[in-house]
């Protein structure tokens, strides 16, 4: 049994692991959209991806680990690249990505599973720690550039800016305008400057 | 068929409607905890409360209306009464109530139903508008007392203070300390003062 699908590139240097990850991610994404988190099973993912079960289990011991990893891979880049130097624009760009990610059936399945207590608390807390960490680049750059005090807590700024989005999306159902995003970002920045 | 249960007071002036409401609320609360929002039915509530179906439907045309009304009745008071003049303490008291309400299986059932799109958007938006409105007393008093600018948007202040609570409780699972509540309240107040 091969770890590769027939159409996967077989000899790209360093490509083997990357191909396995890409195939498993794609299979996991499809399956999660089709059956939801509860019925989602690692053996089924392995079969769909054309990858050995043991290969999957070695890398992702539980389905929570795989789904976390998948969601992180979808948000793994730094939006400040496109808006160098303007902290508020960078934060607004990040908030737009948050809104996009919340529209993904994948993310909705994970949030529903969280609400049901179906996700292991350690996996959940680790996922959010990593997600916040990966988004904190724009805050760290702003600190380095003297735009925010050196004592700024990146996670706290991100939480303050993003939590009204989750609140409206999942709790009140209220719509979110572009002006709202600028308000959320501006407040989080002002607070970070006042808190120091 | 009587609208009253055997043990309800029969002749208190103005008590008839209040007794019906209390009995229906109690029955609705029990039923929602037992079967969840999806399986919740107004006819079953009426039977349990010992109240005519038509009486229930006249006052609460849909189950969304009844559940909204029930939740509003559970949070219908003004926490500033206990901490006159200290805006931050009043806001912290309000946030503690938010945390308590999120622990109620009732509220969890409603949030899950929101996430599933099972609650009518108008009922949902109306519920949150009324819930925010009823909690806005402390903001209005603070404006009257000169503690906040006259242009302060009460709903916006409440949203800013409360949304990190919902975010941690339903999204990240992160714990919330009393110090966090003071931080959330202080930031919302500072923002309202800076925004004016």
The greatest interface between two protein chains, and residues involved on each side, is: A-B, 27 and 27 residues
Number of helices of chain A: 10
Oligomeric status of the shown chains?
homodimer
Largest sheet of chain A: none
Low-confidence stretches of chain A: 1-11
What percent of the residues of chain A sit in helical stretches (DSSP H or I)?
Answer: over 70%
Walk me through the structure.
By secondary structure, the first copy, chain A, is mainly α. Helix content of chain A is 71%, strand content 0%. Chain A has ten helices and no strands. The first copy, chain A, starts with 14 loop residues before the first helix and ends with a helix. The longest helix of chain A has 25 residues. The radius of gyration of chain A is 19 Å and the shape is elongated. At the A-B interface, α6, α7, α9 and α10 of A face α6, α7, α9 and α10 of B.
Sum up the structure in keywords.
homodimer, 196 residues, mainly alpha, 10 helices, disordered N terminus
Nutshell version of this structure?
Two copies of one chain form a homodimer. The first copy, chain A, has helices at 15-39, 42-49, 53-59, 63-74, 87-103, 105-115, 121-135, 137-144, 154-172, 178-195. By secondary structure, chain A is mainly alpha-helical.
What topology does this entry show?
2 copies of one chain form a homodimer.
Chain A: H1 15-39, H2 42-49, H3 53-59, H4 63-74, H5 87-103, H6 105-115, H7 121-135, H8 137-144, H9 154-172, H10 178-195
Helix pairs in contact in A: 1-2, 1-6, 2-3, 4-7, 5-9, 5-10, 7-9, 9-10
């Amino acid at each position: 049994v091969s770890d590769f699908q027939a159409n996967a590139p077989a000899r790209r240097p360093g490509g083997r692991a990357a191909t396995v990850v890409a195939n498993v991610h794609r299979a996991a994404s499809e399956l999660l959209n089709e059956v939801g988190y509860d019925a989602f099973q690692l053996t089924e993912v392995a079969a769909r991806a054309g990858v050995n079960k043991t290969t999957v289990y070695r890398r992702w011991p539980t389905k929570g680990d795989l789904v976390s990893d998948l969601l992180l891979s979808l948000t793994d880049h730094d939006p400040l690249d496109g808006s160098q130097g303007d902290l508020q624009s960078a934060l607004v760009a990040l908030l737009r990505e948050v809104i996009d990610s919340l529209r993904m059936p994948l993310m909705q399945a994970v949030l529903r599973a969280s609400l049901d207590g179906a996700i292991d608390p350690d996996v959940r807390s680790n996922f959010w720690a990593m997600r916040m960490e990966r988004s904190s680049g724009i805050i760290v750059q702003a600190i380095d550039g003297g735009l925010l005090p050196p004592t700024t807590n990146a996670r706290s700024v991100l939480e303050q800016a993003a939590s009204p989005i989750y609140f409206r999306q999942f709790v009140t159902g209220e719509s979110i305008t572009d002006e709202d995003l600028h308000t959320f970002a501006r407040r989080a920045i002002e607070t970070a400057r006042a808190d120091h």
